[in-house]
Amino acid sequence: MKRSIWLLGLCAVCLTGCVTFGGTQRAVIRAKNRVAPGLVHIRPVKEVFSGGKREEVLVVGSGFIISHDGYVVTNEHVAGEARIVRCVLYNKEEVEAEVVGTDRFTDVAVLKLVTDRTNLPAVKLGTSKDLEAGQTVLALGSPHGLARSVSLGIVSVTDRYLGSHGDMVSPYNNWIQTDAAINQGNSGGPLVNLKGEVVGVNARRLGGADNVGFAIPIDIAREVVEQIIEHGRVQRSWLGLTLQEMTRKTDDPTRHGVVIGDVDPLSPAQDAGLKPGDVMLSVNGIPTDARFVEDLPAVEKSIADLPIGEPATVRIARADEELDIEVITREKSDLKGDEIEFAEWGFTASELTPAVVRTAQLPSKMGVLVSGTQVGGPAANAQLDTGDIILKIDNLDVADLAAFKRMYDERVESKQRLVLLDVKRGALARFILLKQDGEIQQADVTGDTLEDGGDHEE
Amino acid sequence: MRNSGAILLAWMVAAAAIAPGSPAAAQDADARSAPYDAVSSAVCLLSYSSEITNPANGSVSKRETRALGLVVAPDGLVMTHGHMKLEDSEPFNIRVTVGWDEDEQEYDGVLLSKPDDVNVCFVRIKHEEPLDLPCIAFARGVELALGEPVVVIGVMGQSLDYRPILFQRAVGAILESPRTTYCIDDRVPFGAVGGPVLDGQRRVVGVVGFDLSPKEGGDLYIHHGHPLIFQADLFAKYIDTPPGEEETPEDREDAWLGVFTQPLTDDFAEYWNLPKRGGVIVSALVPDSPAEAAGLQRGDIIVGFNDTPVRAKQDREVLGFTKMVRDAGVGTEAVLKLLRNGEPVELRITLEGRPKSARDAGEYEDTMFGLTVREITTDLRIMLNLSADVQGVIVRRVKSGSWADLAGFRTGVIILNFGGHPTTTLDEFRQAVEQVADERPSEVTVFCRIGARTGFFRIQPRWQDAGEDEPAP
């Protein structure tokens, strides 16, 4: 008797389980079928600067078609600096694509398939604002290069704040965190709800964790995509502020605004007299409340969305008074500067960005940043180092990367034996003498360690 | 307990050679063990803490280390491997343990100047009474042959009470460049690094070493994992005259110019159309230094210091100039002979004492918030690329679980203002902390510099009522 009750119980569990599972399965398959035809397996050949050399490497990522004439959305870290992009559509057809534009601040890129077709299967974009933690989602893409893969999970958190790590920044968005498996190669692929609508662009995962992946909310991506299609890039306003959540100063929930933690030198904010410690209450009448870190991206975005080059009224609380301060916005510069290989001298250099200028404590944007040196090359032999900032060449100021390239070309052409570089290294300065007559030597494992090469302090 | 150590050694040696049991064999074993016993009694244990500075961000971490030491003079001179003092680490809290069990004696030690021509360090035992410790007598002028067996004495691990242990090895290779270097044929455990090496005639011919000193070629060998034998002749002079102790006044202050330099190589001379006679290029000046005050400029080439010509063509030759300046005497006027744009110039400079370095920086430990901070010294300012307008104290340690820890403070953060009080000096920081403690606010806003940017931290103290500290009745 006992045994039969037990069996009955088991059947009941199985029955309910099967019914629920069957329903989910149908919904998952339906959702997958709606998106999959628009899924793209992306193989860009990217320009990579490494070890003082420019190289081209093939990478693999994912993307999705958003228009019948072939616009494709993917990640900036997939398609940025790509020379050639080969795409494999869901029907395994291979089509070349061009990079329309990229945005490093949101990690979004737009490609255009090179085709005359106007009947390509496009995905339907949903909205990310209605997402809820616990909601079922699918991630589609090419994990580890395995095209047309689908994984299933739920939304773990809808507004995960991720701080900056080097070039990995996301000032304007929180992230959708999901446990749907996202691996290398999933980047740029769609995160899809059970209605078959794209709600996010898969982009990151937490290394060393199990299924902690992150997607850019589609509402943020959509705006960026529209701007890229229209202008080829995203233009944003810049004030030169580092903002911090209010709880950095007080836990009092009645206090509104956002804390100004830092003001960039030579920025609109500094020109206008804004100071660290001021609390920004509103910009052009729009409240800028950020009590917690998760509130910061929206405030950052409201500043980025201000018209460029126009006055904006910033209302601040300073000590016990409230002040309206007029700030004239400027256009925000790109996160990363252009990079060039100087092959004859065996190194690569990039443009100075405001962030580099700030970190290196430079008085201006003059100079170029050494991004890598080739072992055994003239630059490395002369002890030029990654991170050095070249300020002068043969005692002439280096205005920017283009100017440096011209000066380099002239010297390579003239074959002058010795070239003097004035270099800033941290707080110190150093003279570097490049020899143009030396041939590039093979890497010597031990040779370089013998020479001291350091600065001597007396 | 040294006796037990000797018994252990005796057994090990005997076991290798003779079957135990026969009285004759036991006597033989005693005789054989005698030289090792004498040597092992001079083996001691060095314990010290090190502060390791991360050159990238200036953060400092601590490490506790134990290493083998050798008493090399009865008055308390101990030699160990050069790893004890590296460029980015500074040992402190040095203790020397001599003997075992009831004979065990612990002393405080002081690190002497590290020699630059052999990779060893010396520690002077501090003791009020004169000491007469068992010490090692090295055989000098011994040449080893390829394949010759050697015995290395090391110490075992903590659970084995760091007792001595013998290893039988052989000379596996002899390198003739940059100097005669004996390589041991097989690896040795860390506890044998710095340990005595005995040759076939049981003479102590040297110690186990790893990498050479920077002057000899640096860490070339350690990459290959081959232990070396530092023969006694390399360090004997330091046993006779311990490094640093030969100088007359113990607290003689180093003189300082405040310039960073590079050697005037022949290529630089050619580029600037100068005679190829060497010199020292001024590549950077320290702000507010004697060099800046005297009008020295970046790009000047120093070719003479007082009456001595300065002729550096290579990095290592610049060190001669460094030493010249260091030894010239604080407060003395020096004449610098320069080439400026190719023309000879003479500058008179009053040398000052070297500014306090991070190693000697003042420190303040606040027990209430859990922050240990130190002043920003000139070298730290240069290392962290801080401009003169950054005035604050730098966080050195954050006590785990403290209010500061909860607020997110970490090593390397520079505190500019604490609870509304500027903290440009250690004293100001201490006063600020005391004032905040008196005011007992529910939140303390701290303005800091983190990397190249500024920002705020908020500490939420949990003040206890005055009576709470009292023990319950």
Give an overview in words:
The complex is a heterodimer of chains A (458) and B (473). Chain A is of the alpha+beta class and 458 residues long. Chain A folds into four domains: 78 residues, Trypsin-like serine proteases (Thrombin, subunit H, Beta Barrel), CATH 2.40.10; 108 residues, Beta Barrel (Thrombin, subunit H); 95 residues, Roll (Pdz3 Domain); 102 residues, PDZ domain (Pdz3 Domain). In chain A, 21% of the residues lie in helices and 37% in strands. Chain A contains nine helices and 30 strands. In chain A, strands 23, 24, 25, 26, 27, 28 and 29 form a seven-stranded antiparallel sheet that branches. Chain A has a six-stranded antiparallel barrel with strand order 1-3-4-7-6-5. In chain A, strands 9-10-11-14-13-12 form a six-stranded antiparallel barrel. The termini of chain A are far apart. The N terminus of chain A is likely disordered. With 473 residues, chain B is an alpha+beta fold. Among the domains of chain B are: 99 residues, PDZ domain (Pdz3 Domain), CATH 2.30.42; 102 residues, PDZ domain (Pdz3 Domain). Helix content of chain B is 19%, strand content 35%. Chain B contains nine helices and 27 strands. In chain B, the strands form five sheets. In chain B, strands 21, 22, 23, 24, 25, 26 and 27 form a seven-stranded antiparallel sheet that branches. In chain B, helix 1 packs across helix 2. The radius of gyration of chain B is 28 Å and the shape is flat. Chain B starts with a helix and ends in a 14-residue tail after the last strand. Classes of the chains: A alpha+beta (458), B alpha+beta (473). Strand 30 of chain A pairs antiparallel with strand 14 of chain B, so a sheet runs across the interface.
